[in-house]
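User: Sequence in, structure out. Go.
Assistant: Echoing your sequence, followed by the structure tokens.
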Amino acid sequence: MRDPNTVAAIVNALRQVYGDDIARVSLNDGLSLAALIEVLLYSPLKNHDAIKLITRALSSGDFIVTPDFGPVWHLKYFYDRPRSLHVVDIAVMTLDQGTIPSTEIHLRLPNDN
């Protein structure tokens, strides 16, 4: 694991919201980025800390992210209202695939069996 603190924080947030069994299934089978955003934004974390955690999860290499973004990609943040710093959603902008919404991005932990 490259960033165990990020993985642990995400696991803890999922356990708080869904419980152990559903969190485990979500991490093994995969969950959408939209679902992860929702869990983290409604967790006790501050908004900017939740967004940093999501950003680290996408770039850490600890999660299998589908679709594959390719070598060059950027995050696009959607804010609550104009001039707000409160992020409510994230999309990924790529050269080949255009903008991919959070509902179409899935993360899962690799199966180390």
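User: And one key feature?
Assistant: Strands lie at 31-32, 64-66, 73-79, 87-94, 98-101, 106-108.
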